[in-house]
């Protein structure tokens, strides 16, 4: 979960550096809404940066899938290690 939050933080910092948002809270909110694919639409970017919204949403969907796969793999390995005698 920490890498997902880190990505939203870095995305919001990038939007602030490029001058799209003046406040960190608004930038982070926008990144979180896009990254989690909620898509409220209450914060709209300027036309020159509008393409970043769908790209961030697609990246968020993929990263949530990767995170789920990693968690599943860790749990599977823990179960296999814990119950090694049941494999044979």
Topology:
Layout lengths: L1 H16 L6 H12 L16 H31 L6
Helix pairs in contact: 1-2, 2-3
Describe it.
- The protein has 88 residues and is an all-alpha fold.
- Helix content is 67%, strand content 0%.
- It is built from 3 helices and no strands.
- The longest helix is centred in the last third of the chain and has 31 residues, at 52-82.
- The radius of gyration is 18 Å and the shape is elongated.
- The protein starts with a helix and ends in a 6-residue tail after the last helix.
- 15% of the residues are buried.
Q: Hey, roughly how much beta strand do the residues contain?
A: under 5%
User: What is the alpha-carbon Rg in Å?
Assistant: 18 Å
Please state the structural category: mainly alpha
* Euclidean distance between termini CA atoms: 35 Å
Count the beta strands: 0
Largest sheet: none
Global outline: elongated
Order of helices and strands: HHH
**Low-confidence segments:** none
Report the helical percentage: 55-70%
Number of helical segments with 4 or more residues = 3
Mean pLDDT: 87
């Amino acid at each position: 979960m920490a890498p997902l939050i880190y990505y939203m933080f870095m995305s919001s910092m990038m939007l602030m550096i490029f001058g799209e948002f003046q406040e960190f809270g608004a930038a982070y909110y926008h990144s979180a809404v896009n990254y989690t694919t909620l898509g409220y639409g209450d914060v709209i970017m300027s036309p020159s940066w509008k393409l970043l919204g769908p790209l961030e949403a697609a990246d968020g969907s993929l990263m949530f899938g990767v995170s789920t796969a990693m968690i599943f793999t860790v749990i599977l390995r823990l179960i296999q290690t814990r119950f090694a005698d049941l494999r044979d």
